[in-house]
Amino acid sequence: MPPQIPLIEHYRDHLPVTAATPRLTLGEGGTPLVRAAALERETGIPEIWLKIEGANPTGSFKDRGMVLAIAKAMEDGAKAVLCASTGNTSASAAAYAARAGLPCIVVLPAGHVALGKLSQAIAFGARVVAIKGSFDDALALSRELAAGGEGTLVNSVNPHRIDGQKTAAFEVCEVLGDAPEWLCIPVGNAGNITAYWKGFNEARESKMAKRRPAMYGFQAAGAAPIVNGEIVKDPQTIATAIRIGNPASWNGAVRARDESGGSITAVTDEEILDAYKFLAQQEGVFCEPASAAAVAGLRKLAQTGTKPTQVVCVLTGNGMKDPDRAITLGPTIVETAPTIEAVRAAIRG
Ligand SMILES: *Cc1c(COP(=O)(O)O)cnc(C)c1O
Q1: Mean pLDDT score of the chain
Q2: Which has the closest alpha carbon to 45: 32, 33, 57, 36?
Q3: What residue owns the CA closest to ligand 1's atom 14?
Q4: Is the shortest distance between the CB of 92 and ligand 1 below 6 Å?
Q5: Is the pTM above the cut of 0.70?
Q6: Is the model's pLDDT at 279 over the cut of 70?
Q7: Which of 119, 141, 145, 283 is 20 to 30 Å from 295 at the Cα level?
Q8: Which atom of ligand 1 is nearest to the CA of 244?
Q9: Rounded Cα–Cα distance for residues 287 and 284 (Å)
Q10: Res. 1: pLDDT tops 70
Q11: Reading across the β-sheet that carries 214-220, which strands appear in turn?
């Protein structure tokens, strides 16, 4: 394999990268696109691909946008970076800030961040503040801190985040030789669906692709402001990465949906957990619950209406982020005596 080229170097012609932009990298991008045979059999859709974004350095797609946002913050002489986060943004910001030698401040909703993500932010040395409020409250506070000069805001309201994240659409087009017929993606703050749509439009303009996909976004039923057409005051879902009631890129998501002829619909926590288990136990792909919303939604759409022939589902984050949820997928482990009889008995259950 050739040595990996930094993502922002590889796609510099499509990004606001100049000679003065530091080539910051932790090896992000170039993630696997894997066929989902069991899901194809179940849905009757001939070709389904999973974009494994959990293979990024900190375990989520957030690294694609964060590397650019923090490289640009370095270029602009930032003294610190800060963000609100449901978990993965903070893990990514903290890692790239450490790499860049910048202090990082993260504001989180207390009690609603998966353990793996929290441990990353701590390990990378971020200043972590947990507020007794929602992600939406955390984002409002972070915007105020940034406006007050505390540091550069690296949430997806920072346009460099969207630009970096659109590179995933380029990769999909390069591997498949064109854009897929459908793209299925979870929607939280709606930065990623906005970024993919931007990426697919630019891919067509630059002849990387001939067509654009129909964009299918999925929100959790208890956190579905775009589906309902109104802000959700107290969003609730086990998929903590999409537990957001007032998405910052709401307009971008609506534009992606309407311009592409797709839809944004809701999936229940039960459907999300069922898809999460299916992916792990039928495909051998371990993603986090929020990511499984894309597959839960596809399974639902496949039961109604016309079926596409080719779909890409974006699996946004790694399953190991949320160990507390993961261990609920199988039976409780019981300890036994270290004898062959006891172990045989334990295997039979
Ligand atoms: C951030 C995140 C999402 C939601 O992405 P948005 O850009 O906020 O819509 C989904 N899944 C995972 C794993 C995430 O980290």
Answers
A1: 96
A2: 36
A3: 241
A4: no
A5: yes
A6: yes
A7: 119
A8: 8
A9: 10
A10: no
A11: 33-35, 47-52, 310-315, 182-186, 214-220, 263-267
